[in-house]
């Protein structure tokens, strides 16, 4: 297991902990590209230095980490084992490039995907995740959807869903 924190300390009105890019998010976002390059570099190092099979790597996250997981799927050249995105900012409704890239990726690389979001999320739009889910489902991807009544959080029901999904991959 390798769990990464974002490189930036994020102590503001909006969040605490670590972030991958500054809030609020606008697209395009230069910090997103820098962070994505670092994640892709770490994945390459895992594969080369530790002989980890790409199919044994599962990338996942919550909030900004979920956004980074989606972008990893869209930008990583290796076929990884799966992706999990909980309460992401997907920007699918406003980003034509991502819509086209998703269609291309599903046709060439369709690993298992878990996508979840709270219906009452006050930070990131539930509708974006739902649209991403429907896009992936309509493209024939191997996706599991988990929605719940909560807000911008990971509740116990979601943890069980994540556990069940991970166990199905192992």
Describe this structure in words.
- By secondary structure, the chain is α/β, with parallel strands linked by helices.
- 43% of the residues lie in helices and 15% in strands.
- It has five helices and six strands.
- The strands form two sheets. A four-stranded parallel β-sheet has the order 3-4-5-6, with helices on both faces. It has a two-stranded antiparallel ribbon with strand order 1-2.
- Helix 1 crosses helix 2.
- The protein is globular and about 40 Å long.
Strand content: 15-25%
Structural class: alpha/beta
Give the low-confidence spans: none
Following the backbone from N to C, one meets helices and strands in this order, namely EEHEHEHEHEH
Mind telling me the C-alpha Rg? 15 Å
What is the average per-residue confidence, as pLDDT, rounded to a whole number? 86
The number of helical runs is 5
State the end-to-end CA separation.
13 Å
Q: What is the number of E strands?
A: 6
Specify the overall morphology.
globular
Helix content: 40-55%
Going across the major beta sheet, what is the strand order?
A: 3-4-5-6
Sheet with most strands: 4 strands, parallel
Task: Present the secondary structure layout.
Elements lengths: L7 E2 L8 E2 L10 H21 L7 E5 L1 H12 L6 E5 L9 H13 L4 E6 L7 H13 L4 E6 L7 H14 L1
Parallel strand pairs: 3-4, 4-5, 5-6
Antiparallel strand pairs: 1-2
Helix pairs in contact: 1-2
Descriptors:
170 residues; alpha/beta; 4-stranded parallel beta sheet; two-stranded antiparallel sheet; 5 helices; 43% helix
Summarize the structure.
This protein is of the alpha/beta class and 170 residues long. Helix content is 43%, strand content 15%.
């Amino acid at each position: 297991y390798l769990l990464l924190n974002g490189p930036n300390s994020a102590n503001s009105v909006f969040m605490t902990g670590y972030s991958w890019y500054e809030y609020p998010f606008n697209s395009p976002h230069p910090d997103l590209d820098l962070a994505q390059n670092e994640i892709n570099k770490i994945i390459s190092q895992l594969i080369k230095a530790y002989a980890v099979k790409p199919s044994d790597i599962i990338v996942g996250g919550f909030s900004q980490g979920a956004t980074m997981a989606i972008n990893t799927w869209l930008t990583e050249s290796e076929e990884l084992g799966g992706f999990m995105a909980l309460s992401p900012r997907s920007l699918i409704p406003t980003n034509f490039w991502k819509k086209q890239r998703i269609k291309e990726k599903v046709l060439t690389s369709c690993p298992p995907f878990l996508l979840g979001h709270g219906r009452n999320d006050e930070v990131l739009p539930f509708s974006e995740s739902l649209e991403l889910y429907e896009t992936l489902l309509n493209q024939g991807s191997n996706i599991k959807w988990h929605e719940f009544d909560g807000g911008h959080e990971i509740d116990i029901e979601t943890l069980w869903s994540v556990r069940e999904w991970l166990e199905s991959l192992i």
